[in-house]
Amino acid sequence: MPRAASSRRAGPIGLAAFVIVSIALLVAFAPARRGGAGPAAFDLSKPLPDTIPPGVVLRVGDPVTQWIFQHEGWEKQLPFKIEWAQITGGPDVTEAFHAGALDVGLGASVPPIHAAWTGIPVRIVAFRDFAEPDRHQAWVFGVSPNAKVASVADLKGKRIAFSPSQVQAVVVLQTLKAAGLKTSDVTLVELPSSIGGDVYTNALASGEVDVAPLGAGIVVQRYIRKFGSDGARLLKHPPFRDDALNVYVPETVLADPGKAAALKLFIRYWGKAQAWINAHPEALAEGYYGRHQGLPIADGRLIVGATGKVHVPGDWSRARAVEQAAIDILGQQTGRPRLDAATLFDPRFETIAATAAQGTAS
Fold first, then answer.
1. In terms of DSSP H, where are the helices of the chain?
2. Helices 110-117 & 167-178 angle (0-180, nearest 10)
3. Measured CA angle at 189 (ends 185, 190), to 5 deg
4. pLDDT tens-place string over residues 20-50
């Protein structure tokens, strides 16, 4: 069965490998507090606890939600403490779970699957996707300036950036499948995209890869602004959904009654935050991306506009189907065992965020 190739050592790929080793060393020498190791005792048939004892702390990696909580003063309304972490992206969240440094992470379809495959039992406790999926794609392919790729059929024989622990891998595999191509028809160059923000765009510009999936919005616009005059181009993938976003936690968090009760309340406010995002796109662009992140307001508006309104369903049928499809196509490629996607969810949380997003939560 074909696997991802990793034959480059110089340039962005060399940098990525260096950072991978650095993160591995950090984890290896992290405190002995292992958040994801070992079975966690909790019972899905029992209701979520409501009592939050004094001293409970949730460590959360979700910078946008952090800004909204603090902007709206919601953090002061909570009977527990949140320690916010600037940790995003599936590989970094998985490493933080492994080191016992994070309780709540944010990721697309693949990170919870990858965590389970690497021995960290996790559960999805909230889900959202695009409200207008026909108008927005979360991922677009960047084409290297010298690569002759005008359509997905032209991907045959090309080198494609591939990160098996991230949703970009599923975007690549689903695109090849839709184009009638096998992975043996291309060269998959293993390259995590979250290690250094410009790794994929630099790999494209330097010709290390011919094609790479880039986040829609500011990432693709920066790529074209910087390298468009050299011949860089964009290519949409065939029609399929790529917009799932999960809030997920190690099972050890659910096994702790105090943290589980705090998480139940946090997810209620997270749902409110999604409704706030839909109602205040300009405030998010100016306040978070502009004043807080220091980006030009136009770039902030571009980021917010790339997603459009978000949708928080109270029925996770599609969410489970998305996870199962990702498991099946990625497991076949990487040789990982098949999982039942339902085992990645905690159904006790299914309606909490949706109810709050609809403005009916108490």
1. 11-28, 63-72, 90-98, 110-117, 167-178, 199-205, 218-227, 251-255, 257-279, 281-283, 297-307, 317-334, 352-357
2. 110
3. 130
4. 444 444 344 343 344 444 556 788 999 999 9
- Quote the CA–CA distance of 313 and 298 in Å, as a whole number: 30
Angle at CA of residue 271, ends 112 and 193, nearest 5°:
35
Burial of residue 69, with CB atoms counted within 10 A of its CB: 0-12 exposed, 13-18 middle, 19 or more buried: buried
∠ CA(178), CA(188), CA(107), 5° rounding?
A: 75
Helix 110-117 vs helix 317-334: crossing angle, to nearest 10: 50
pTM score, whole prediction = 0.86
Kindly list the distances between the CA atom of residue 31 and the CA atoms of 99, 101, 350, in Å, as whole numbers in the listed order.
7, 9, 33
pLDDT in tens, 135-165: 999 999 999 999 999 999 999 999 999 998 8
Q: Rounded to a whole number, what is the distance in angstroms from the first to the last CA of the chain? A: 52
